[in-house]
Automatic annotation (TrEMBL):
Protein name stated in the entry: EAL domain-containing protein
Transmembrane spans: none
Domain EAL: 170-416
Gene3D superfamilies: EAL domain
Native source organism of the sequence: Metabacillus sediminis
SMART domains: EAL
Family matches, as CDD domains: EAL
InterPro entries xrefs: Cyclic-di-GMP_PDE-like, EAL_dom, EAL_sf
Domain of life: Bacteria
Length: 416
């Protein structure tokens, strides 16, 4: 049998007869303060949606390992009585509080410590994941009912407090996103896409930034909130509208890449909305517009997706698949869509000059591109040596900080 100090982090279920809860009983009966703390992961569905099936399993195992490590090595370890998975959305922790400690500051210190350590781990191992949480806590009160009932009541009240905070936060997010869309409070930047043979700008990728000086200026956070509030479609249609206006204003003749999630591309209203946008912007040539399928979401089960792609091509629009090489979803999308352009993910390109396996992966992706008749864009080029490998392998186009950082779309064109 495993020792108590190990088992307490993995209780088989939340049942009060479980001997793992004896510490809670003992502390409450001895008259010590015990707090039930619920930490909910408010965007867990959005986080999981960014992972494929193998990554999801790895993420869950890694999360459990890091949670255990964080709690076992913290200054709070001697006061932790029980840790329990709370409906796969977060944690319930029962924390003993000594008389010489201030109760509420101690609880909030614990919550802050745990969340900050989780965020630090994610920023290192999963930098594309933005983690959000909300918490609630209550003290075990034995003045009414049995100890058994008091512990259950505490856990439920703490969970209710967390949910209320989440609900309030959700309303704020919805109102904030609506305000951004209604006021068109976004900025568009453009990053050049370079033709490797001529070193000339062949296209521009439109990149979005939220309200300046706010957390939503970061595009990862902006789209995370848009997804959680079911406003991805509204945001992406705003981006399309502003991008077309920008093309008209600057009289841009090069191709324009605009990012869209599968959710938007598979929306039954999408094609009609795109056609109306072209009517409002007659100077924009559909043949210069490339819609880039972003994220690693699967397109399976999207009833309108394939028909929409076909209708968009009839207009003259071309289709690109992003993140190729980063996971299964993008490869599956290529086989289903047969895109005009394949964009190779930065994870394949980074340090490709010193990694023969990565160059072999590049060669394999180039073979796929030839089979589908697709142009290839290599993303995330940051040094000359990486660019040299691409040139040697006759990649069509390249994009990255080595050539230029995102900036304003200008009328003047500069050769690289």
């Amino acid at each position: 049998m495993l020792p108590y100090t190990y088992l307490k982090y993995y209780p088989p279920q939340f049942i009060l007869r479980n001997p793992l809860l004896e510490g809670v009983y003992d502390a409450v009966i001895d008259g010590k303060k015990v707090a039930g703390i619920v930490i909910n992961f408010t965007n867990i569905k959005e986080v999981i949606s960014q992972l494929d099936s193998s990554q999801e399993k790895e993420f869950c195992l890694s999360f459990k390992k890091h949670t255990k490590s964080i709690l076992e090595t913290s200054d709070f370890q001697n006061d932790i009585l029980v840790v329990h998975n709370y409906y796969n959305k977060g944690l319930t922790v029962f924390l003993k509080i000594d008389e010489n400690k201030q109760s509420v500051p101690y609880i909030e210190q614990f919550i802050g410590y745990f969340v900050s350590r989780i965020q630090k781990w994610l920023s290192q191992d999963y930098p594309y994941i933005h983690f959000t949480s909300e918490s609630g806590y209550m003290f075990v009160d034995r003045t009414e009912g049995s100890t058994h009932e008091a512990i259950l009541r505490t856990q439920q009240q703490a969970a209710d407090m967390a949910e209320k905070r989440i609900h309030s936060k959700y309303i704020d997010m919805v109102l904030n996103m609506r305000d951004i869309v209604q006021k068109q409070n976004i900025r568009l930047l453009a990053q050049p896409i370079i033709e490797l043979d001529t070193k000339k700008v062949q296209a521009w990728e439109i990149l979005t930034r939220g309200p300046e000086g706010t957390p939503l200026e970061n595009p990862l956070q902006l789209f995370s909130v848009a997804r959680q509030t079911n406003m991805v479609y509204d945001l992406e249609m705003l981006i399309l509208e502003k991008a077309m206006s920008l093309v008209e204003e600057t009289r841009t003749q090069e191709d324009i890449y605009i990012n869209f999630t599968p959710l938007t591309l598979g929306n039954k209203r999408f094609v009609a909305s795109v056609k109306k946008a072209f009517e409002r912007h007659p100077a924009v040539n559909p043949q210069n517009i490339i819609l880039e399928i972003t994220e690693r979401d699967s397109i399976e089960g999207m009833a309108f997706f394939k028909d929409n792609i076909s209708d968009l091509r009839d207009i003259g629009i071309r289709i690109a698949v992003d993140d190729t090489g980063a996971g299964y979803a993008s490869l599956h999308t290529i086989s289903e869509v047969l895109p005009d352009i394949i964009k190779i993910d930065r994870s394949v390109i980074e340090n490709i000059d010193t990694n023969r396996v990565k160059e072999s992966m590049l060669k394999g992706l180039l073979l796929i591109a030839r089979e589908t008749g697709s142009l290839v864009v290599a993303e995330g080029i940051e040094k000359k040596e990486e660019a040299d490998v691409l040139t040697r392998n006759r990649v069509d186009l390249a994009q990255g900080y080595f050539y230029a950082k995102p900036g304003l779309l200008q009328k003047e064109r500069v050769a690289f």
